[in-house]
Amino acid sequence: MGTQPYSAATAPASNVPPGYRRPAIATGLLVALLALFFSAGFWQLDRADEKWTVLDSAARAATGDRLTSLVSDAEAADYRFYTFELRGRYLPERQVLLDNMTQDGRNGYQVLTPFLSGTQYVMVNRGWLPAGNDRTQLPDIGVAADERVLIARLSALPAPGLRLAAPQTAASGWPRRMLFPDHAQLQAALQLPLPAYQLQLDPAQPDGYRRDWQTVAAGPAKHFGYALQWFSFAGLACLFYLILMYQWWRSRKAATARLTVTSELP
């Protein structure tokens, strides 16, 4: 009875011939990298398309009629960037300072002030102002509570790129410093029925601060540039793969030639 060339314990771990393991690994790595690069590239193209949609909505809103009453949360998406002309008054006794809001690299606050129009409340973003060197001293953001005509545009509440689950720090007194509060947190703090959006005060309106309102933080061109970058990475990965395969093919051909010459020697 003959012996087996190797036992089950010493069987090869792979069916790939030893000389082909390197290109097999390279091919597997290429497939993984192409999946990553193309996925990221197409995601950036989707983001660019979303930005075009937002810009188109803002352009349509700019030519639309002014609205004279607030809309429901369900309608807010359809009226984003529309201009509102509301009669009412500020409620200066309960204002919110949105913390960690930067302009030109400088830290500061955005000022949210509740506004009462008829029987409806809404938060009005009156703009950005810099924070002082002493963080314990809050800026004076007082505003008159007399009746006025407010002109502002509808926008989403400021939100971070990644919202963590940490609750707002308990605080008392007004104005109240808050870090990216959501709709529920604002309602709880002010004890007012508020819509899930804000109104950005028109730059020509009085009693505001710096108001460089942006429709989108980054335009579609930036996302197209990122997409081109990812697709370029995919092209480079293919180029390096072809170079490696060519080098492997040459070395394999040379080794075969040496074996042929050796076998022909007497």
3D structure, described in words:
- With 266 residues, this protein is an alpha+beta fold.
- It has 2 domains: 22-63 and 220-255; 71-213, no CATH class.
- Helix content is 37%, strand content 20%.
- The protein contains 4 helices and 7 strands; from the N terminus they run ααββββββαβα.
- A 5-stranded mixed beta barrel has the order 1-3-4-7-5.
- α1 runs antiparallel to α4 (220-264).
- The protein is elongated and about 105 Å long.
- The protein starts with 20 loop residues before the first helix and ends with a helix.
Total number of beta strands: 7
Low-confidence stretches: 6-11
Fraction in helix: 25-40%
Termini Cα gap: 36 Å
Largest sheet: spatial strand order: 1-3-4-7-5
What is the overall number of helices? 4
Shape: elongated
Alpha-beta content class: alpha+beta
* Tally of discrete structural domains: 2
What's the overall average pLDDT, rounded? Answer: 87
Largest sheet: 5 strands, mixed, barrel
Strand content: 15-25%
The string of secondary-structure elements, in order, is HHEEEEEEHEH
Radius of gyration, whole Å: 31 Å
